[in-house]
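Lab channel / #folding
Pinned by the channel admin:
"Please post every new chain as: sequence first, then the structure tokens as a reply. Keep commentary short and put observations after the output so the thread stays searchable."

First post following the new format, from NK:
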Amino acid sequence: MSLSLVQSRALLGLEAAAVTVEVHLANGLPSFTLVGLADVEVKEARERVRSAIQNSGLEFPGNKRITVNLAPADLPKDSGRFDLPIALGILAASGQIDAARLAGHEFAGELSLSGELRPVRGALAMSLALHAGHVVTQLVLPPGSAEEAALVPDAQVYRAAHLLDVVRQFLPQGADAAEPAEGWSRVTRTAMPAAAAYADLADVKGQVAAKRALEIAAAGGHSLLLMGPPGSGKSMLAQRFAGLLPPMTTEEALQSAAIASLGGRFSLARWAVRPTCSPHHTASAVALVGGGSPPRPGEISLAHHGVLFLDEFPEFPRAALEALREPLETGTITISRAARRSEFPARFQMIGAMNPCPCGYLGSSLKACRCTPDQVSRYQGKLSGPLLDRIDLHVEVPALPPQDLVQAPAGESSRDIRERCSAARERAVARQGKTNQALQGQEIDEHLALDAAAVKFLNTAATRLGWSARSTHRALKVARTIADLAGAHSTQITHVAEAIQYRRALS
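Reply from TO:
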């Protein structure tokens, strides 16, 4: 048979579009042509496939005119994932394997020159997309990628270490069976660690108010801004925040791992561990939100169901900070290009850390500030009002005196705080089906249960502080979280008063 069809997948964001690898062998001048909107790394597959087939002891039809088409033609294809399907297509078209037996299988894998299979990026995302689309197929993947894809429930995944391992499974009927393929095996979902390991909040001495704010943020899914002098413990607090969040559900773990797989960052050791992404303050807007052709996820998507920690918050480029506005509200980011549009999830909790002024010691009792009022105003003015509006909690983190730092006892452990946060989240989800931070519009009025004194107090405070409607709503959501932590059915004046205090650090 001179024509063969092999199925594979191309990744566009989190979507796994079907790709049919069509291979045709014809008489004529020997050539190897690859068409179908292939990127550079895909076009280079010609040399990898040729060498892999020959070095595996198989016959490469070098005296034929080989045409490989990656259909559909208008779908961009990148990476080396099409090496294996192209090689199998050539072998099927030349009659060395049974083309009919390839039906019901999908293949992805990069070939080395010796025929060994190398992992590909996005295997878990591909398997998850197939599961979400209810596509029943058998995936054949290289070692490393197969273990990722097998994490998806009910996935049929086979691991192959070498091209010959795959070839032996699809030999024509009546062919002499060679030695068993040692590198071929069915991969099942492995047992994962019972609990993820995080740094303990007990390591941070003092800072009771900041720890309380972290607890509220973890319980309600709120964003947080820490402001204080250098060395006050802002980074330590932020790096331990993920340990206060409830354990990830299987669905959350799969979504987070799929995004990490797209970025080439996933490892089995990080399964069900909430990510903490902390990009450098020189990161661009594209680095944060994602981009490229085809689009890839940025830091805010890689922090999905985890924490985005932005240290030296005002030092980030203005465009990068302003790009955070929509994701903080919607939980998604849409990257639009002339030919393609990709949407990535971005349901993260943001923690920003900043100094109060350029020198860092404004209001410090340990060291005098040397900044002028104009310098302080310009520094704090790098954060726009609309962005600050979208941050629920603004907390001051004062410097600790040396005697308190040395003699202070160890604080409460992350495990104890996490139990309270999980209980508060469960109350919120049982009441409204989502966290308090995700409440919108009429849902706020429906689930807040404000008493009369709290309403009067809030109206007075919002008027005096000049709050926008968004600021008022976010303070109400924080108050609802404080009430959930206290186990209260209604939101009372004490809960509202505490919530108001967490929005005054930069006012």
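NK: The chain has three domains: 3-187, 201-413, 439-507.
TO: also worth noting, Residues 414-432 form the longest helix (19 residues).
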